[in-house]
Design goal:
By secondary structure, the chain is an alpha/beta fold. It is built from 11 helices and 9 strands. It has a single domain (8-276), classed as Rossmann fold (3-Layer(aba) Sandwich), CATH 3.40.50.1450. Helices cover 34% and strands 23% of the residues.
Length: 288
């Protein structure tokens, strides 16, 4: 049975299980002092992209070795620095950035995007209005929570594209909750990719994609798996799922703390990547 997943790492593992795949490269590294290990997959050819079901580009998975992100204590700044370093490797140092939190704030497993957006340091207005301040070391950052079509009547892509026309960013960072097909990745991995995102694709509810092709500017996506298919649970316990439960989506019991802590990690990591001259402590003070 093919399970739904947003993680390139899982797709690569399944494809590679049937033999070596040309056009896909894989590198592994660690983040000392964080408990994180990093796997970077690069999809280099159209043939490899078709096999994986993922566009050509770079996919970075940051995996927590010791459980879910909600269970970690201490070293929060070091872990955020790890996320920031991986993000900088994808985006460089852009001057104007739009951060878009995708998802539904009213549904906890889907609220990662808007919760992360609420912790991003927005500076576009400061750089334009605070003429007496030296803001040269700050990136020009615009932040939105795009909501979902049932709330706004608009596709997230339509809203983000409209903001792009006004803010004229050099880069879009889209943050969204993901789906995985391996229990070990649920709530314990961060995926960063250079290819953008199709919101809801991991739960068979794909909306219009956010990418350079649709928005007109490079688009990076960041997310954490907060849900998995019920069939994954059945397989892990050696059982089978009844037809009446097919397609059911499940989430961890500690989803509230998982989303809260994960959003804090992502927002601090993004802030550190966009404003490298500020420390983690300074950024937390500015966004608290």
């Amino acid at each position: 049975m093919a399970y739904r997943t947003d993680l390139a790492l899982e797709s690569e593992q399944r494809v590679r299980a049937s033999g070596e795949v040309p056009g896909i490269s894989k590198r592994e590294r660690s983040c000392p002092g964080t408990g994180f290990e990093v796997t970077e997959i690069t999809v280099e050819t159209d043939e490899a992209a078709e096999l994986l079901g993922k566009p050509r580009g770079r996919y970075i998975t940051v995996k927590c070795r010791s459980g879910r992100l909600s269970e970690l204590c201490g070293s929060a700044s070091a872990r955020a620095e790890c996320i920031a370093a991986e993000l900088r490797g994808l985006i460089g140092v852009p001057e104007r950035v739009l951060v878009a939190g995708l998802g539904n704030m009213q549904i906890t497993p889907d609220s990662l995007g808007p919760r992360t957006a609420s912790g991003i340091l927005a500076t576009r207005h400061i750089k334009r209005l605070a003429k007496d301040l030296d803001t040269s070391e700050l990136a020009d950052v615009t932040v939105i929570s795009a909501g979902v079509m049932g709330q706004t009547g608009l596709e997230s892509q339509e809203l983000v594209r409209a903001v792009c026309r006004e803010a004229e960013p050099e880069l879009v960072i889209a943050v969204d909750a993901l789906a995985c097909s391996e229990l070990g990745h649920l709530g314990s991995t961060v995926q960063l990719c250079s290819t953008g995102i199709s919101p809801g694709s991991g739960v068979a509810n794909a909306r219009s994609e956010l990418s350079e092709k649709t928005l007109g500017v490079p688009t990076v996506a960041i997310g954490i798996p907060t849900v998995t298919d019920c069939a994954v649970i059945a397989q892990a316990s050696g059982g089978q799922i009844g037809q009446e439960y097919a397609g059911m989506i499940v989430t961890p019991r500690d989803i509230d703390s998982l989303v809260q802590r994960s959003a804090g990690l992502l927002s601090l990591g993004i802030n550190l990547a966009l404003h490298p001259t500020l420390t983690a402590g300074e950024l937390m003070m500015l966004t608290s």
